[in-house]
Amino acid sequence: ERGEEIDRREAEDFIRLHHAENPGAGPVDLRLREVLSEIDQTGTYTHTTSELTFGARVAWRNSSRCIGRLYWKSLQVRDRRHIDTADCVAEECVEHLRAATGKGRIRPTITVFAPDRPGERAPRILNDQLIRYAGYTREDGSVLGDPANAEITRRALRMGWRGEGTRFDVLPLVVEAKGALIMREVPDEVVLEVPLRHPAFPWFAGLGLKWHAVPAISNMSLEIGGVTYPCAPFNGWYMGTEIGARNLADRDRYDQLPVVAEGLGLDTSHDRTLWRDQALVELNVAVLHSFAEDGVTITDHHTEARRFLTHLEREERSGRVCPADWSWIVPPMSGAATPVFHRYYDDVALTPAYVHRPPLA
Ligand code: HEM
Ligand SMILES: N/C(=N/c1cccc(CO[C@@H]2CCNC2)c1)c1cccs1
Question: Is the pLDDT of residue 9 over 80?
Fold first, then answer.
């Protein structure tokens, strides 16, 4: 479809915000005249690298569901707006993972590809994240691997991809651009993984569980001053609960709580024995222990909760509202044992922003 006409008011508000927080950016009226005349002539306008970098960082600062915003100013921004073919997007995603992963010292990074332009659709990555484990649906409806990725796995198989058939096969990137749909394997050397073991229970390693080091979201659009960048994968590091309390614990994901409870020798005959809760804690202990022992950046939900409240107080001291969505900020285990549980927040929607893309037509 045609890239939507740029909203002039959003463009002006963003340019004013950029100059207000970046005094070195020069006279705002001069830049405003440039932008508004470019919109009149072409229907859109081009951000300077400084505006793009600031916009991506403020979009993170505005993300009300994100507990990890304390370091919003340190986001590394890779300006790749000149890249608009499927092959080059896929290649740059591999380079993004290489740059962001290091040897485990993870750097929060975003790569911004070509925006939607009037008459020219931007590239799109069809994977939810750059690194995802395949979910193979079997005859009986059960899934080998990650059930959350069953659909993209079917699509990749239809396009000719074949995995090894393990519970942790890294899916290929599926990228659509300029009418082309391509698939590209993610090389092992840019996929850092951590095998999970427990500091006190030797049997835990025998469960054969592992997880990848870098969470890199590739299904959200970056909106800055009326311009939409639908292809802008970004990564941070994990909070342990995401892996230990959701990805490996949810019934419709890897469903490992009964397995861990069995290993612990717990009485699983009734929920009221709290066997699920005991298994959750030990699974999360294993995640944090394994990542730390391998020197891979990870944070626990207590530390992250404290950091978030520090961020919120700093924002308020700077005279800004810090938007937050309680239902996402409070961790998925031990909620009231963390300080973020015991207060209210203002969930206002600010721009620039990371937004969920409308599903592909
Ligand atoms: C640096 C370490 C970071 C940590 C520990 C962190 C932690 C989290 C967690 C735990 C969530 C909730 C995810 C879920 O429940 O599934 C979240 C959501 C989110 N984070 Fe962060 N984050 C970090 C960095 C970033 C960065 C660099 C960006 C973007 C530049 C970002 C943008 C977001 C957004 C947009 C959401 C909401 C996603 C949605 O609505 O589906 N975060 N973050
Ligand atoms: N730690 C992270 N966690 C997430 C951040 C945003 C989204 C997600 C995944 O969200 C899915 C949709 C709802 N829960 C799973 C995970 C980060 C990913 C990229 C930068 S930080």
Answer: yes
Q: Distance between CA atoms of 339 and 308, rounded to whole angstroms?
A: 10
Q: What does the block give as tokens for 18?
A: 């950029």
Single pTM value for the model: 0.97
Q: Which two tokens stand for residue 244?
A: 């230990």
- Among protein residues, the one whose CA lies closest to atom 30 of ligand 1: 60
Rounded to two decimals, the ipTM of the complex is: 0.99
CA-proximal residue: ligand 1, atom 25 (nearest): 236
The string of pLDDT tens digits covering residues 324-351 is 999 999 999 999 999 999 999 999 999 9
Burial 35-55 (b: 16+ CB within 10 A, else e): bbeebeeeebbebeeebbbbb
**How many whole angstroms from 73 Cα to the centroid of ligand 1?**
15
Q: To test ligand 1's pocket by mutation, which of 58, 65, 76 has the most ligand atoms within 8 angstroms of CB?
A: 65
Sequence-separated (6 or more) residues with CB below 8 Å from residue 135? 143, 144, 145, 146, 147, 148, 149, 150, 153
Active site residue 231: no
* Cα–ligand 2 centroid distance for 108 (angstroms): 13
CB of 118 within 8 A of CB of 136?
A: no
Query: How much is the pLDDT for 110?
Result: 99
